[in-house]
Amino acid sequence: MALHMHSSHIIRKYFMTEDMLVLKLQKPDGFTFKAGQFVQVQVPDPEKPVFRAYSICSTPTDPTLDLCIKIVPGGKASMMFAAASEGDTISFRGPLGHFTVPEGIAGAHFIATGAGISPILSMIRERAASTLPMTLLFGIRSLQDVCLHEEFLSLQKDYPSLQLTYCLSREPNPPESWQKPGRVTTHLPKILPQEHVFICGSPEMVKEVRAFYMNQGIDKQQIHLEIF
Ligand SMILES: Cc1cc2nc3c(=O)[nH]c(=O)nc-3n(C[C@H](O)[C@H](O)[C@H](O)COP(=O)(O)OP(=O)(O)OC[C@H]3O[C@@H](n4cnc5c(N)ncnc54)[C@H](O)[C@@H]3O)c2cc1C
User: Fold this and answer.
1) How much distance in Å is there from the Cα of 14 to the middle of ligand 1?
2) Which option is the CATH number for 5-96: 2.40.30.10, 1.10.287.70, 1.20.1290.10, 1.10.443.10?
3) Residues with CB under 6 A from ligand 1
4) Pick from 141, 85, 135: which is nearest to 110 by CA?
5) Please, is 85 exposed, middle or buried when counting C-beta atoms within 10 Å of its C-beta (0-12, 13-18, 19+)?
6) Model pTM greater than 0.90?
7) Would you write out the chain's pLDDT as a tens digit for each of its 228 residues?
8) Which of 81, 125, 213, 217 is deepest in the core (most CB within 10 A)?
9) 107-227 in CATH: which number?
10) Per-domain residue ranges of the chain
11) How far is the CA of 113 from the centre of ligand 1 (A)?
């Protein structure tokens, strides 16, 4: 079945870091989605338009549809987003995807690297006020790439059921406040019965973390993946 195409204006565009962009799009009338889903953005091309997937980082009840985009040098969609201005129109189809939090789980462990934080941000923002125990292990390269820290600290202050850990993989001398230097794979949380793990980021990281939990005998149903 062909997916319905939507067109939205960019309401706001800003960079969280040198290469991590946030686009706040006008939410089309009647557009609904589940936290964790993505849209496919159309990139105009003289030969044939191409589509690129972007997870929604706002929550289903937020007034805007927000995307968190890592600008890849030379990338087709990246160049379009980098050049776009507030007021421009973006066309997309969706929502799509099954990377969502099932009802009735005992706890949620989120593991993200880079732009993989996008769908997880939506899931955490949506559940922050609930009593669901949640941990977030967020891997970035260096202090230059730190983003969303204030927001997560504030969520953690208001909702202590969220535990937050940033890992800085390429920072030679991380300050003491960053207790977890190294890659996310060296700090993976223990998954208890009825708890679920949600992994999003590069193919290598996702495969490695999945293999770790599979080797621990964690049921496949408890492991949710999104590969960027
Ligand atoms: C389900 C899903 C959800 C996604 N959600 C997001 C999201 O929320 N935010 C986000 O930023 N991306 C997301 N992605 C990735 C996104 O769809 C694009 O693949 C990415 O933005 C690059 O597209 P591009 O057109 O700019 O680059 P392309 O034109 O596809 O690639 C250009 C060049 O860059 C290289 N390249 C591509 N991606 C990367 C990368 N990540 N790092 C280094 N080099 C790269 C390619 O090998 C190629 O040489 C998602 C992907 C999937 C499958």
Assistant:
1) 19
2) 2.40.30.10
3) 38, 52-55, 68-70, 72, 74-78, 97, 115, 118, 226, 228
4) 135
5) exposed
6) yes
7) 567 899 999 999 999 999 999 999 999 999 999 999 999 999 998 888 899 999 999 999 999 999 999 999 999 999 999 999 999 999 999 999 999 999 999 999 999 999 999 999 999 999 888 889 999 999 988 888 888 888 888 888 888 888 888 888 887 777 766 657 678 888 898 999 899 999 999 999 999 999 999 999 999 999 999 999
8) 81
9) 3.40.50.80
10) 5-96, 107-227
11) 13
